[in-house]
Design brief:
This protein has 219 residues and is an alpha/beta fold. The protein has helices spanning 16-27, 34-47, 55-63, 92-101, 105-118, 131-135, 149-161, 168-184, 206-218, and strands at 5-9, 30-33, 67-72, 75-80, 83-84, 124-128, 141-146, 197-200. It has a single domain, classed as P-loop containing nucleotide triphosphate hydrolases (Rossmann fold), CATH 3.40.50.300. The protein has a five-stranded parallel β-sheet with strand order 2-6-1-7-8. Strands 3-4-5 form a three-stranded antiparallel β-sheet. Helix 3 (55-63) runs parallel beside helix 5 (105-118). It is globular, with a radius of gyration of 17 Å. Bound molecules: 2'-deoxycytidine-5'-monophosphate.
Length: 219
């Protein structure tokens, strides 16, 4: 089978990362978590004390930034100017900041080229919010993975539970705010591409979702 470019968009906590990784493994493809790139910029902006709506500051920050992924025994790692920041970008604070900086056109423009470059050779699964709509409108197979807000909050809470002392209500609030922000922004709002297959995984297991998607990819 020829190498394809596959996109999986959808809201926070829908299970995009788990599903994308499994599909990439099964097809022997690469996997790119584009949310991590927005998180990387948010992380660096916080350190450099650049405000979330300071477009000139963000533009300067991006132009001096070198974000790239490497794979090691622990999985996909995000390097920012050669420093491994993978573990630092998974906090609720960085989630909200990533959602805020992702609404700025300067940030999206910077990441657009970077992401397209990563997909040049195909054989990649990209997960994000605008992969099938803006970054790769000609992708071979597009999915939009969704689930009820409650179920997404519970899944995210279980993931975080061992690492933080967050309570479920806080996780639900964060997911609600991010959903609204990511959906309502002017540039590249989160939405399914017209030609995306929509998968609602509220009542589906990870394996069911993966098999359903693979059968569509391989047909
Ligand atoms: O997938 P994630 O939760 O790690 O993404 C963090 C934020 O980054 C998300 O709230 C919105 C933004 N994002 C985006 O705007 N476009 C993408 N392709 C991926 C993420």
């Amino acid at each position: 089978m020829k190498s394809l470019l596959i996109t999986i968009d959808g809201p926070a906590g829908a299970g995009k990362t788990t599903v994308s990784r499994k599909i990439a493994d099964r097809l022997n493809y690469k996997y790119v978590d584009t949310g991590a790139l927005y998180r990387g910029i948010a992380f660096e902006a916080r350190i450099a004390r650049v405000g979330q709506d300071d477009d000139i500051g963000l533009e300067n920050l991006c132009s001096a930034l070198n974000l790239n992924f490497v794979k090691d025994g622990r999985g996909l790692r995000l390097l920012s100017n050669n420093a491994d920041i993978t573990d630092q970008i998974r906090t609720p604070e960085i989630s909200m900041m990533a959602s805020a900086v992702s609404a700025r056109p300067v940030v999206r423009k910077y990441l657009l080229d970077l992401q397209r470059n990563m997909g040049r050779k195909k054989g990649v699964v990209f997960e994000g919010r605008d992969m099938g709509t803006v970054v790769f409108p000609d992708a071979d197979k597009k999915f939009y993975l969704d689930a009820s807000q409650k179920v997404r909050a519970i899944r995210r809470y279980r993931e975080l539970e061992s690492k933080t002392f967050q309570i479920l209500e806080d996780v639900e609030r964060e997911i609600r705010l991010r959903d609204e922000h990511d959906r309502k922004r002017e540039v590249a709002p989160m939405k399914p591409a017209d030609d995306a297959v929509i998968v609602d995984c509220t009542d589906l297991s990870v394996n069911d979702v993966v098999e359903r998607m693979l059968s569509y990819i391989l047909k």
